[in-house]
Amino acid sequence: MPKNSINQLAKELKNFLATQDEDDLITAAASTAAASVSCSPKEVTSKEETSSGATLTIEFRRSTPRASTVTASNTADASIMNTTQKQAALKELAETIQHCSRCPLGATRLNAVPGEGNVNAELMFVGEGPGFDEDRQGRPFVGRAGQLLDKMIAAMGLTREQVYIANIAKCHPMVDPLHPDKHGNDRAPNAGEIACCRKYLEQQIAIICPKYIVALGGVSAKALIADAKSLGALRGQFYDLHLDNVKLPRPVKILATFHPAALLRNPGWKKDAWIDLQMVMDKLGLKGARK
Fold first, then answer.
1. What is the pLDDT of residue 2?
2. Are 93 and 72 in contact (CB under 8 A)?
3. CB within 8 A of 120, min separation 6: which ones?
4. pTM of the full predicted structure?
5. What is the residue extent of each domain of the chain?
6. What is the DSSP secondary structure assignment for residue 147, as one 8-state letter?
7. How far apart are the C-alpha atoms of 131 and 114, rounded to whole Å?
8. How far apart are CA 259 and CA 146, in angstroms?
9. H/E run at residue 155
10. Which residues in the chain come in under a pLDDT of 50?
11. Is the separation of the CB atoms in 1 and 52 below 8 Å?
12. Which residues 6+ apart lie within 8 Å of 115 measured at CB?
């Protein structure tokens, strides 16, 4: 094939792929990937064999997702929705999550766990992923760790119904997915699973638009704060939240603290976690539970 024909082929292929919806490309890749799949490749490689037997390789980086309005299928603009709009957008997003198969977790879960709470919450808690109990009920933080989180929220002077609770991953990451009824089968989501679910969480944050987010545990903290530091190094200060796929209607601050499951294993850390929560309380003007 003449050189000018090869160049034209490369140009046409690049233009075609650049116009495709990111979700379509991701879904197609995720359906054939292994369990360690990453759904956020930085580049796509295409190979075409020419008539002379040579292989033409084309590499290019993906463009930034286009921003539009806040719905379950689009990214967010810079406006804050009213309560009815938020409820509708979150419902649509939850339905999308329930039918999601973008990564292998969708094939092994019992129930997807989108999140729940006050759509107008000023405070949002984000954990790492659903566990055994959450997988069965389809609700976040309903096991032993969830019971402790409820107590932490109550100590702040709030109720579960006043905040919003979600996870980075929306399906149960299991050590042994062939035996979902086995207890102690929980694990943290891997990088590929986080990448697949990240867009869902970012849309939830943009819809609810809380003033503050508490990242529960190192997995959540590192994913949202985008810092390679340990959880211990991330704690003790607020960070400006920056999202990859959406534009926030207003600035959101994020604070990292221990995951409730870690506090159950290490009760001595509860004092430090309470110090973290008091920082949020001070910003929100909360006085804590009455004794």
1. 54
2. yes
3. 83, 86, 208
4. 0.76
5. 3-61, 83-284
6. H
7. 13
8. 10
9. helix 144-155
10. 13-14, 16-38, 40-77
11. yes
12. 94, 140, 164, 165, 166, 167, 204
